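[retry 2/3] Cell division protein SepF: previous attempt timed out, resubmitting with same input.
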Amino acid sequence: MAGKVLNKVMGFLGLEDEYEYEEYYEDTDELENSSESAEFEPIIHSNKKQGKVVSIHSTSTPKVSIVKPKTYDEVVDICDDLKDGKIVIVNSIELDPKVGQRLVDFVSGATYSLNGTLEEIEKGIYILSPSNVEVDSELKNQLSSKGMFSWNR
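[retry 2/3] Cell division protein SepF: success.
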């Protein structure tokens, strides 16, 4: 009985053997009459759970949201777009510098909590990308040099 309790404790802790054997109880009379030896086959039990492998690459193109906030209250909409998996481009140039800094601080925290990235393209223009999107630095340089963000000039 003590062996059963010990086996249960070891099984709970994950320390039990991976192989268990079935025990056969045979009458001794039958063994004397048979010339064959008894064979035992192991029953294999695994305590490890089989995990599913899921591909994280998606074939869909992420959506892009371009926001030019006029007040700090629009920060919630920016964060909602980011939570929805959209790439968000924020132009905070026309905001008061203190309000713009508060907005950037807030979206920076939201981006961090969602494991995304926040990158400044030009002064006052930021790209927020969710965790499943990577922004190529070469693309940022091309956009910046070609004047793609001409609304700030």
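[retry 2/3] Cell division protein SepF: Residues 79 and 107 are 6 Å apart (CA to CA).
[retry 2/3] clearing retry counter.
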